[in-house]
TrEMBL record:
InterPro entries: Ig-like_fold. Gene3D superfamilies: Immunoglobulins (2.60.40.10). It comes from Celeribacter neptunius. It comes from the Bacteria. The chain crosses the membrane at residues 45-63. Residues 20-39 are annotated as: Disordered. The lineage of its organism: Bacteria, Pseudomonadati, Pseudomonadota, Alphaproteobacteria, Rhodobacterales. Keywords: Membrane, Transmembrane, Transmembrane helix. This is Fibronectin type-III domain-containing protein.
């Protein structure tokens, strides 16, 4: 197969944008006042601020400073102390800590259901103690302060001894046709890592977009979407699904990428935007604009939002030296992905934040995940290169080429905000750039418009769960999104909320055991392994799949009746051709509480 990069032609912009009246915006002060405003890699950021005066997004009046019932909503950074008896929320670090009449509400994190108000009139309080936060449940808190027409609001996730997740759901792993000829072992290893993290895996092949016309690319995308939607419905409608109904889509390689609407979330000229949420939306109506453009019409998410988390692992837009370089980027990415999952980089508890005025919501999310004292002011291209980080949130350079020739940012998860970066179809895109070696990011988003709701990651949620929470942050009865503010502007149903990288990744990896052996004997099958060296280790779980094919697809069931403290287990009733997996379990004490996390599973050599 001959590998050719890029896409054919330039699509016309023939869908009329909906413009808003001019917004009077004041550029914020530089987030680092000791640095001159002429730092070269910031030029894209300042261009974005300057162009905000003509910001046009096809949301009608939805784009405005976030308001609820006539009141502006600002960010209220929360902190918390969690012990075995409850959760103490604290907002004393913020400016005017006593201002506003405080209200506190709570709900289970995963439900997205109605809020239960714990207190509606705390006066000018600066903290609140919840003594009824039952252990074993991921709780989500909202604190809201109101005074003189000003509202500030914040969120925190907390848990006490949250149980580990054995079964995470289904991954639909879509590989570009022909890609396995170049990176077959890496794709096999990646699928095995997904299985080892508790996912069922179905592998699909998708049409390569390298030689398609715009119309042909749209047709191929619709065909792939139909297949993904059918698999989603079959999985979620299965009555046997118990807590693992989540579906994740991972696109690997240059698969069809559609464009839709006329939007300008970065404040520049409205134009059709690349969107992978087309695939993640199972039942929404995405009509085309017709003709030969291959464009879709919606400028906002149709229907009820998205049902599946979705990430794209593709370096076809980040090449410098032809096909061999793209393949090298992919091989390096999957090597790094395995290293993170298996704890080789450690259990990172640090983050850096630049451009805090634009990215305040994401900054609060970082503080929830690692604690406010572990969030360092800094940028992708200075502090971000000093060592490995769990998370980095910043503008970053606007020039994607420089990521491949000049920089080596080292966050696992990244927000790379700035002009044009959300256009993931463009060559040398900076979001893909910060994932390409020597950079180290494994999942990258474009934040701030709207802001990503990251606080669930403090309890081990995946970055894909944050994508779902952000994309589906829709209006409540008073017209305010469920999570507010959504950044500087009220933005709902964003079709450009793409995630590059692996959506199934999460924080707080556990060091796995190693060297599993299975020995048949009279009393059954004897399993032995080498211990995990994780400092918060509690024990092990043993799993069995009934056939080799079931093992490859992730159909493992727990067979150890209790947590095993030793490094040996006897299966008294083995099955012919059965396959085993062992995972270490640790009780991680994180900033948001205490949570059980399982390691990657190890399997015996076959």
């Amino acid at each position: 197969m001959i590998w050719r990069f890029g896409r054919m032609g330039r699509v016309p912009r023939n869908a009329a944008p909906v413009r808003l009246p001019n917004l009077q915006l004041t550029p914020p002060p530089h987030s680092h006042p000791d640095r001159p405003a002429t730092v070269s890699h910031r030029s894209g950021a300042f261009a974005l601020v300057a162009s905000a005066l003509s910001l046009a997004i096809a949301f009608g009046a939805a784009l405005s400073p976030v308001r609820a019932q006539g009141q502006e909503i600002g960010v209220l950074p929360l902190d918390a102390a969690i012990d075995g008896d409850g959760v103490t929320l604290d907002w004393s670090r913020v400016k005017r800590p006593h201002a506003g009449d405080a209200q506190v509400a709570r709900r289970p994190l995963a439900t997205g259901g109605p809020w239960l108000f714990l207190s509606t009139d705390l006066g000018e309080a600066k903290s609140f103690r919840d003594n009824k936060a039952s252990p074993g449940i991921a709780w989500e808190y909202k604190v809201r302060r109101v005074r003189d027409g000003i509202v500030d609001q914040g969120y925190f996730a907390a848990a006490i001894d949250l149980p580990a997740i054995d079964r995470r759901g289904l991954v639909l792993l879509v590989e570009e046709a022909g890609l396995s000829n170049h990176i077959g072992p890496e794709l096999d290893g990646f699928a095995a890592d997904l299985v080892g993290d508790g996912w069922r895996v179905e592998r699909l092949t998708g049409t390569s977009a390298r030689r398609l016309t715009p119309v042909g690319e749209l047709a191929a995308a619709r065909e792939l979407r139909d297949r993904l939607s059918a698999r989603y419905k079959a999985w979620t409608e299965d009555a046997a699904r118990e807590g693992d109904a989540t579906v994740a889509v991972i696109l690997v390689g240059d698969l069809p990428l559609v464009k839709s609407g006329r939007v300008a979330p970065d404040g520049h000229e409205p134009q059709p935007t690349a969107t992978d949420l087309f695939y993640a939306d199972v039942d929404g109506d995405w009509p085309s604009v017709g003709g030969t453009s291959g464009l879709l019409a919606p400028s906002r998410l149709p229907g009820n939002g998205i049902e599946m988390m979705l990430g794209r692992i593709d370096f076809s837009v980040s090449r410098l030296q032809g096909p061999s370089r793209e393949i090298a980027y992919l091989i390096d990415y999957f090597t790094r992905n395995h290293a993170w999952r298996s704890g080789q980089w450690g259990d990172l508890r640090n983050a850096y934040l630049g451009s805090a005025s634009h990215l305040a919501v994401e900054g609060h999310g970082l503080a929830t995940i690692v604690g406010p004292d572990n969030v360092t002011p800094g940028e992708h291209h200075d502090v971000g290169e000093e060592r490995r980080w769990l998370f980095g949130v910043d503008f970053g350079d606007y020039d994607g080429k420089t990521y491949l020739t000049r920089y080596a940012a080292k966050p696992v998860f990244a927000i790379n905000f700035g002009s044009h970066k959300q256009r993931i179809d463009k060559m040398l895109n900076p979001m893909a750039g910060i994932m390409a070696a020597p950079n180290q990011a494994l999942a990258v988003a474009w934040g701030a418009r709207p802001a990503w709701q990251l606080h669930g990651m403090a309890l081990g949620e995946t970055i894909g769960a944050a994508q779902l929470r952000t994309a589906n942050n829709r209006g409540m009865s008073n017209g305010t999104p469920d999570y507010a503010p959504t950044g500087r502007y009220r933005i709902v149903d964003p079709i450009w909320l793409n995630l590059l990288g692996d959506p199934t990744l999460h924080a707080f990896p556990v060091r796995p055991p190693s060297e599993l052996t299975v020995t048949p004997q009279d009393g059954g099958s004897q399993l032995n392994w080498r211990a995990s060296d994780d400092p918060e280790l509690r024990g092990y779980r043993v799993y069995r799949a009934r056939t080799p094919e079931a093992a490859r697809n992730g159909a493992f069931e727990v067979i150890s009746p209790d947590l095993i403290s030793s490094t040996a287990f006897l299966d008294p009733a083995p099955v012919a051709n059965g396959r085993y997996m062992v995972r270490a379990l640790a009780l991680k004490h994180v900033h948001a509480g205490s949570i059980e996390i399982l390691s990657q599973g190890i399997r015996a050599r076959e």
